[in-house]
């Protein structure tokens, strides 16, 4: 388990992401998958090498008969009767032409290997996204629990004050019972918040194998292209899963071309050196060294046409799946973009509402002391304030999760440059045919949130995010058909 450095050390999203990449069984399985694909590529390259083998032939029983039965005729040093000789030799066979079957298999394997690298990039983006979402979920539930603790403490104070008033006949028994019921309600909500926080902590521990203790609010991708169409083009150009799907479809097309080779003529260059012992009564040893060219024209190959039809159908299937994948991912990107665009205004209104409720609550306390407000009024405003703070925490997390989702869709999530190289994932060579994906890291802000035991004081102030101009850097993407370049996601950090 990684050690973060002592009691005062703060755990950042970078550290959590690096640990998740180290511990992920998904990435380990994906590495094994890529190893298998690369082994297939090496096998496709080896197919161009000659076949070399040793031939050993030792007959166990053999009988020759002749018709008509005549006396052996001596021809030179040889005689007609033959034996079953022992054979030992070396053969080498080099395919010269096979209907481009090996070439197409090589292209298919190479394209599939390139697709596998993009699959690995996509898997890592998903691991980083899951870790980041789990990280901010812990921060969210910490804030919610703090708000619930503050609500319980405030209602208990109201209950104590109402009980004292009841003793001096300034409050009724109904008021006391009402405050007690609200105390039970607030404590039940607090226990629910504790359960949610414990579940969020377990989820983050499952992903990172480390205990979330002191956590720093992360920098989050907060800027998106101003145009929804520009962002859609960015997804089409830089999404690793789409790049993998396109290359997989291309590999299926090359595989279909390779199936045609079964119907084409084949030409092989064959070299053989064979020594035969006990060849005949007159010759004890015969050596044969031959180099020949063998051509074969297939007239009927069982199953060749069905295999060709199957490979062609699979290639068409992959093509349709790529089109559906593009439509699905672009639609999801547009949906997330639209939600992210609208949730900012919602969060601003909810935050402003919290400010108004806090001011109203202070006014209610004064008016209650003057006798203009009832216990029910003060209890209601306390409950409404707690629900408003919970709503702000939830919407803030939803906004940040959408920002992370938008960044992951274009391959922008990374563990950051501040994490030691030994704790980052292994570098992946990007295929030459694909535009390079610029991966940008997230840093840690100087504000720390302790997700250990939450004090019973008032809830901490909720934090938003703002743009940090010094970190704005455009992501290199492929140009659009019209010549323009879509916008890029940028990075902002949480403000204290």
Please write out the topology.
Blueprint: H1 13-23, H2 25-46, E1 51-57, E2 74-75, E3 78-79, E4 86-97, H3 101-167, H4 173-208, E5 214-215, E6 220-223, H5 228-238, H6 240-260, E7 266-277, E8 285-296, H7 304-370, H8 375-409, E9 449-450, E10 465-467, E11 490-494
Antiparallel strand pairs: 1-4, 2-3, 4-7, 5-9, 6-11, 7-8, 10-11
Helix pairs in contact: 1-3, 2-3, 3-4, 3-6, 3-8, 4-8, 5-7, 6-7, 7-8
Concise structural overview:
With 496 residues, the protein is α+β, with helices and mostly antiparallel strands.
Outline the structure in words:
With 496 residues, the protein is α+β, with helices and mostly antiparallel strands. Helix content is 54%, strand content 13%. It has eight helices and eleven strands. A four-stranded antiparallel β-sheet has the order 1-4-7-8, with no helix packed on it. A hairpin with a 7-residue loop joins strand 7 and strand 8 (285-296). Helix 3 runs antiparallel to helix 6, helix 5 (228-238) crosses helix 7 (304-370) and helix 6 runs antiparallel to helix 7. The protein is elongated. Mean pLDDT is 79; it is low at 1-8 and 427-496.
Q: List the strand order in the largest sheet.
A: 1-4-7-8
Helix content: 40-55%
How much of the residues is beta strand, in percent? 5-15%
| Major sheet | 4 strands, antiparallel
The SSE string, one letter per element, is HHEEEEHHEEHHEEHHEEE
Mean pLDDT: 79
Radius of gyration: 37 Å
Keywords for this entry:
alpha+beta, disordered C terminus, single chain, 496 residues, elongated, three-stranded antiparallel β-sheet
